[in-house]
Specification:
With 225 residues, the chain is of the alpha/beta class. Helix content is 35%, strand content 19%. It has an eight-stranded parallel β-sheet with strand order 1-8-7-6-5-4-3-2. Helix 3 links the parallel strand 2 and strand 3. It is globular and about 45 Å long. Bound molecules: D-xylitol-5-phosphate and zinc ion.
Length: 225
């Protein structure tokens, strides 16, 4: 898993998949070469939207793991420390919490690693990188939000490019950098050049007429950047 985090990967977000045929939509992306599947968990408090919880992660984990894939779980929830263990037990390979939702971030990051998952922290667009000065040695992954979290299909916030460049300089080399929101063919290669190695893609994969072809095209742009 930690190896996958260091590759250059498009990580399809199932937020834009058809929840009525979730297994088939995941299989579609993995058949096209996807290895890391992004799972957006929302609680209706930290963000306005409500999505899915640990039981769904438990249901999708076995087929993803059978194909040598991994689950990248993005918790957009308040009090994530109450749920970290449940998501890790359900099969989450990486668990990312929001800096803004963690009063005791240091403890929560340690809790994620103790649960056997890679530890990620996400920053909203208005949250400075410097809030991670004392935590940057405790994380496997930093997720830079390039939209305000809560919904798929939003427009990319341009300031994220500079934040990614600064993140690459600010974070230890072993820390993976993920960008999430508004990623598409128009910006994917540049986002890699800015410093991201994991690019979440919801609408640009599952909103496309041919999601498998859209994934392959995006992944080729990312690999060739
Ligand atoms: C947004 C979520 C994203 C979302 C991205 O709050 O964290 O992962 O799925 O969707 P797109 O790629 O459609 O902007
Ligand atoms: Zn996400």
């Amino acid at each position: 898993m930690t190896d996958l985090l260091h590759e250059r990967l498009v990580t399809p977000s199932i937020l834009s998949a058809d929840f009525g045929r979730l297994a088939a939509d995941i299989e579609l992306a993995m058949g096209a070469g996807a290895r890391l599947i992004h799972v957006d968990v929302m609680d209706g408090h930290f963000v306005p939207n409500i999505t899915i919880g640990a039981p769904v992660v438990k249901a999708i984990a076995p087929p993803v793991h059978e194909r040598d894939g991994a689950l990248d779980v993005h918790l957009m929830i308040e009090h994530p420390e109450r749920y970290v263990d449940a998501f890790a037990a359900a099969g989450a390979d990486a668990v990312t919490v929001h800096q803004e939702a963690c009063v005791h971030l240091h403890r929560t990051l340690a809790q994620i690693r103790e649960a056997g998952a890679a530890a990620g922290v996400a920053l909203n667009p208005a949250t400075p990188l410097e809030t991670l000065t004392e935590a940057r040695d405790l994380v496997d992954l930093v997720l830079i939000m390039s939209v305000n979290p809560g919904f798929g299909g939003q427009r990319f916030i341009e300031g994220a490019r500079d934040k990614l460049r600064r993140a690459r300089a600010f974070l230890p080399g072993a820390v993976a950098i993920e960008v999430d929101g508004g990623v598409g063919l128009d910006n994917a290669a540049d986002l890699v050049r800015c410093g991201a190695n994991l690019l979440v893609a919801g609408n640009s994969v599952y909103g496309a007429p041919d999601p498998a072809a859209a994934f392959r095209e995006l992944q080729a742009a990312v690999s060739g950047a």
